[in-house]
Structures are given as C-alpha cells and as structure tokens.
Amino acid sequence: MRARPLSFLAVLPAIALLLAGCAGSPAPGASTSAPSAEAAAATCVDTTSGDAVESVEVSDDFGAAPTVDIPTPVSVDTTERRVVVEGDGDETQPGDTVSVELSVYGAATGQQFSQTAYGEGTAQQITVDDSQYIAGLVRTIECATVGSRIVSVVAAADAFGDQGSEGGEVAPGDSIVIVADIVSILPTRAMGTPVEPTDGFPTVELDDTGDPTVTIPADTDAPTELQLATLIQGDGDTVAEGDNVTVQYKGVIWRTGEVFDESWANGAPASFNTEQVVAGFKQALVGQKVSSQVIVIIPPELGYGEAGNSQAGIEGTDTLVFVVDILATSTVPATEGTD
C-alpha cells in the first residue's frame, strides 16, 4: 500500500493533517503506528519554553476541552513548549504509542481547526515518531508524563512549512498551537486473562515480549468459513464498527505457514480504522474488548479475494490466519472542532 498524503492523522477530520506520511502494510490495512528504527533509538529533543508559548493562556482542566486564548498573531522560529498541568504518570519516550486528546489552532489567526472529542474512549493514538507525524506534534508529547496537559507553539518548519496545510487551514510559513492531554501510554501486548485454546485452530506460542509464533495444523485443509477464537480475554472497552483501533498483529498464510505481514517486526503497534481493513479482519475486531488477543481464520472471499496479493505472496485461493492483540479503541468524532 502506498503512503498516505500529508493530510494530520487519517482517523480524524483534521487531526489527519498532522500525519507526516507512512508506509501501509499489505495486510490488514493502512498502519499509522510503526516507528522507524531511528525513533526507537532516539532520545527526546530539548524543547524549552519561551515568550510566545508563555503568552498563550490555556485552562488547566485536564481531560476537558481547553479554553485557549492566543494573542494573535504568534510566530516562532523554534518550537516552544510549556507544561500547563504536570502529571505524575510514566514519561513518554520515542517509539511509544500514546493516547492523547488534542486541540490545534492557527497561531496567526487563533482559529481552532482540529479537536478530538474529549470524552470516554475518544483519545487518539499517536506514535512518538517524527517519520510519521509532524515534528511539532512529536515535540509536544515526547518526554511528557501521563496526566500532563502541554501547550506548544510550533514553528512552521516543524509543522506545514512553506506549503501550508493541504486543506488551507494553515497558511504557508505560519506557526500552529497544539494543546495535548497525555492520557496514557499503550502496552505493547494484550494483558487480559489467558483462555484455553480452541480445538482445530493453529497453535500460538508467545515469547517473553508477547510476539506470537503461529503453527498451522499439519495435513489439515483450511476452513471454508471465517472462524474466530479468543486466546486472551480482556476487560477494556468494546471495539465498535468505525472505531480507530491500535493493535499488534501477525498474519500467516495457511497454505505455506509463512508470515506475510506483522506489526511485531516494526517494534510498535499499528493503528487504523476498522473500515480500512479486509472484511475478515474487521469481523475479528468489532465486538472484542481491549486487552484481548484473538485468532481469526479468514477465507479468501473475506481477505484478498480472487486477486490475492502478489507482493505478500498471497494467492487468490489462500486462507489467512491472524493473531491480533487489541490494545486500544477510540470513537471517531462526527464533526470537526469549532472555533
């Protein structure tokens, strides 16, 4: 799958504008959370306060949509950051996947052009990785403790540069203001209660990190219908149709037993909308609880169909097996933020 165009996080109307572009995986759908090797080895950039960000007034009610007063026009050559509320949770690091509530404004106009919904199950998952999100968003949320509210004034070079945003929300050369509430750092594996394996399914063995090895039953024909079983039962929120989900997954071709796609090799979970994946993968997610691990057997008509996927080695008659750890789910706001 080709990389998405610059357009802030494809799961939100305008938060999609902060997406720097990422390569999708060939199998369940467009991934937005696999960090680069550089991100995994990186350290946080020292982003300090300054006159510009000190001039932005932000309410201190963590978890609620902020009241923000920007003495426009504001512009910076170097991104500035200030802690409005200091949380006492763990500190985010490069490569982490972080749940955040976000409000974003044009620094020249003070106009809000994007906002998450600030409610239960509405925080969005962002990977702390410059290769996927604009640098200013990463500077805002990296090395911040869970429970913190951060405000930043982001230089154009760390935002949309000399081109401005694709939809015209930010003019060329303009700075932006981001207010981010750091809700949580996601685990990298399902943390629920193990369930007895279901007869007839491939076997799944987990290493110390939770990375699964999937073994197809020898001399056994693939099922002709979708089959789904729970391997670890979670007790978190339930995935609804149209949600954005964050998962770890591994995909195996029944015919060969070979892995054709996975998030584990990328070093971090993947995020996408349930509408962006093949039908069988969607069926495996919707109705499941966060912190669960499921195994799904997907017949060709609910996978890649007669066309298959030659790049992934999938033929038109191939049945697929996925083991999926469901780490987070969030609803998609119905409308964009308002002024």
From TrEMBL:
The reaction(s) annotated as catalysed by this protein in its Swiss-Prot or TrEMBL entry are: [protein]-peptidylproline (omega=180) = [protein]-peptidylproline (omega=0)
> What Enzyme Commission number(s) does the record list for this chain?
5.2.1.8
Q: Which Gene3D superfamilies match?
A: 3.10.50.40
Q: Which domain of life is it from?
A: Bacteria
User: Known Pfam families for this protein?
Assistant: FKBP_C
First-tier enzyme category under EC: isomerase
Which keywords does UniProt give here? Isomerase, Rotamase, Signal
The secretion signal range is 1-29
Gene Ontology terms for molecular function: peptidyl-prolyl cis-trans isomerase activity
Q: Which PROSITE patterns match?
A: FKBP_PPIASE, PROKAR_LIPOPROTEIN
Q: Where is the PPIase FKBP-type domain?
A: 95-186, 242-330
Please report which protein family the annotation says this sequence is part of: Belongs to the FKBP-type PPIase family.
Could you identify this protein by its name? peptidylprolyl isomerase
